[in-house]
Amino acid sequence: MLRKLSVIAAVAGLLTAGAAGPALANGHPLPAKDVHWSFEGPLGKFDQKQLQRGYKVYREVCSACHSMNLVSFRNLGDKGGPFYDAKYKNPNDNPYVKAIAKDYEVADIDNETGDTIKRPATPADRFPSPFPNEAAARASNGGALPPDMSLLAKAREEGPAHIYSIVTGYTAPPKGLKVGDNQHYNPYMPGDLTSSWSGSHEHVPPGGFIAMAPPLKAGQVTFDDGTPSTLDQQAKDVSAFLMWAAEPKLEERKKMGLAVLAYLILFSGLLYAAYRKVWKNESH
Amino acid sequence: MSGHSTYEPKTGFERWLDARLPIVRLGYDSFVDYPTPRNLNYWWTFGGILSLCLASQLITGIILVMHYTPSADHAFASVEHIMRDVNYGWLIRYMHANGASMFFIAVYIHMLRGLYYGSYKAPREVLWLLGCVIYLLMMATAFMGYVLPWGQMSFHGAVVITNLFGALPVVGPSITTWLWGGFAVDNPTLNRFFSLHYLLPFMIAGVVILHIWALHVVGQNNPTGVDPKSKADTVPFTPYATVKDGFAMGVFLILFAIFVFYLPNALGHSDNYIPANPLVTPSHIVPEWYFLPFYAILRAVPDKLMGVLAMFGAIACLFALPWLDRSKVRSMRYRPTMKIHFVIFVVACCILGLCGAKLPDDPVIPHLTTFSVMGSDLNSFVWLSRLAALYYFAFFLIVMPFLPLSEKTLPVPDSIASPALSHPAAVPAEATAAPEMKG
Amino acid sequence: MADTAVGAKTGPEHGGDPSRRDFIYIATIAAAAGGAASLAWPFIDQMNPSADTLALASIEFDLSKVASGQQVTVKWRGKPLFVRNRTAAEIAAAVKDDGAAMKDPQKDADRVKPGKAQWLVLIGSCTHLGCVPTFGGGEYGGWFCPCHGSVYDTSGRIRKGPAPLNLAVPEYAFLSDTKVKIG
């Protein structure tokens, strides 16, 4: 019984897995490019240097349009974060974090006059949005709303690889595709191009339109650690940074997972030994 | 089954308490001395695992409420506050979110075990019905819990499910408005779902107590389906069943930990990390995996009302099961033909689950077009789900009542302790089944 | 228990040695207890202040807004914080009483930063049961707690009433002549 049901479960599992694979019908985007990340796998960790570079890309390029309103400056100095320094257990004291925060201005209210004012941010503040509200963001971006970046890497099925693929995946639109104003063709963007396609219905190109123009190009950001600033490098680093922004407790989680699993395996082993002892002389 | 109590208070305090509130006696009789069939296999450990799941969900849930804000404006941010700022908040939230999936994995195995070994048959009908009630409450709780993070899937899932009630004739629209507390899913809906999501688990716990009570009145079923007759057929619950359940729980916890620590979002949906936006629906809206088979049945029927009725009918079949099955033999171990149907049933459920996750008009076999029936190509998930749904209902409404009329069953052993083949003479099924029907 | 059953049939390598059997049971129970205890910690620690609460726990305050003889109340860690710019008379009154009999004896100089005697920073929470004392009440020219009548002097020391301790001085430091960081 046990064996049979296991076989059934395995077959059903294979069936599901097989059928759930990428279905490349019309209108589907290309699957994301395969990227190797330092935070993959059970022992995965963020690469601090990469996060620092990624932060610089975010700061100098993305943050002009994209908010990141769930992340506070102090998070940059948290354990596992881009500017963590073991000397400053409290990230609010981290001079690097303080300096970064001071560069931003946040809205506040003057305690005495009640006027709305701008003041330099402190580590406790969150990253301010580049636009005062959604309508302003749309007006400045041809009607499209640049998504908030705090959870972007978790809010896309393929995670940071999707962000990497979008940023590096812009290509010239295939012949026969009508690209509208403020639109750009990207084969990794989900969408349905059928209505803009003049060719045959069987061969609608993969991908969709994206309102964002190609944001990165080689040499756009100068990395402080001397890493050559290629498009690929920038895209990888900013994707890794966004993964950190979306899941800052990833390192802590994986580390704890190892200890918990080791304990559970040992505990189950002990329970099995106890079970064998208890049932030793009982036929069943 | 329970017989007279063998509990003997040892200390003066125990004697004093026993005369006033025999709670230690109750615990002793129910979980220590309670006679357990000696031949229970690992499929029987899921009752204990489910208690563990319920306890884990209750504890982590009560903790999450300490940090969560039930308001359309703050719900999403408060969940992220838990994930980022609360000490170990990420751990507790991932335990709760994945715990729901673990709960359903365990409950489905528990139900299939009951189905295979005929644990719903007389005298265990009420035990089975109480289990069905728990399952219904679990589905309601899980659905409302999924709404609380107020992400895109939360919101639009709530829209779709509450709109199901709009299919009811005449009263439908009034019921949906009443459920929403407005003209769409909004803050009032979120608040009432939160209230009910907090309440229902305690109702589940209450029905679980009734479920265990009913179990201890009629006694546990076992793989042979033959009731224990003598002391030789049983072992005391402690330590025999407790240690076996404990080991199974340990292994189950390993699976749970793998999800919590290494695949925390694998069973969820990425769209739920986008805050709810009533103006945009995610391109592909699916419920959580444990609802997929029912969702597939809903979509298999082209008419809205009929689809809703079919979905609820699929659950209603479970309630009617004790009276649908006409077989005299309890365990499928001795019903070779039924065993085959059981396997097909499990596969059909898996196929329904798969279909629920797919777009109905996508082809099952890629790049193959056959001919179109009722507006959809035969090579599509909607037709696959129609086939599987048909078998789902046939299993309950045709196979269960009518197969026993012509079924050849294997000889059933006289008792648990005596092996099945100690009676080599081929006894007719009716005769071997008779001993089971004792009071 | 299994005591009666075990020992009847003993295999050659794992014998019915009771100490070995007991070891497995004891180890299993100990592992279960250890696991439960470790699991309890996250469930307890989650009620401690979260990271965003702690981030706001230290504040910077600009003293130039407080005129002599005035007091500004700021909210710090959810409690009122008194920042008082004491007059020379208030300081003198406090120093004069340094030798008086007190419940919680302390010199005025120990309650301010050296050279900054006019700046008195106090947590505005009565050490009796946490009410907020008002300035200018009572016979010592300092604070008076309306709840149960505790009287504090111009240094915030308890002089009369049920409160056991002086008003607490938080941890703070002067960043410049006009700026303090509290916490």
Molecular structure report:
The complex is a heterotrimer of chains A (284), B (439) and C (183). Chain A has 284 residues and is mainly alpha-helical. Chain A has 2 domains: 25-71 and 127-248, Cytochrome Bc1 Complex, Chain D, domain 2; 254-284. In chain A, 36% of the residues lie in helices and 6% in strands. Chain A has 7 helices and 4 strands, in the order αααββααββαα. In chain A, strands 1-2 form a two-stranded antiparallel ribbon. In chain A, strands 3-4 form a two-stranded antiparallel ribbon. In chain A, helix 2 packs across helix 6 and helix 5 (160-168) packs antiparallel against helix 6. The longest helix of chain A is centred in the C-terminal third of the chain and has 30 residues, at 250-279. With 439 residues, chain B is an all-alpha fold. Chain B folds into 2 domains: 39-282, Up-down Bundle (Cytochrome Bc1 Complex, Chain C), CATH 1.20.810.10; 286-406, plastocyanin oxidoreductase (Helix Hairpins), CATH 1.10.287. Chain B is built from 15 helices and 4 strands. The longest helix of chain B is centred in the middle third of the chain and has 32 residues, at 187-218. The termini of chain B are close together. By secondary structure, chain C is an alpha+beta fold. Chain C has helices at residues 18-45, 51-55, 88-96, and strands spanning 59-62, 71-76, 79-85, 119-123, 134-135, 141-144, 151-153, 158-160, 172-176, 179-182. Chain C has a 4-stranded antiparallel beta sheet with strand order 5-6-7-8, with no helix packed on it. In chain C, strands 1-10-9 form a 3-stranded antiparallel beta sheet, with no helix packed on it. Chains in contact: A-B, A-C, B-C.
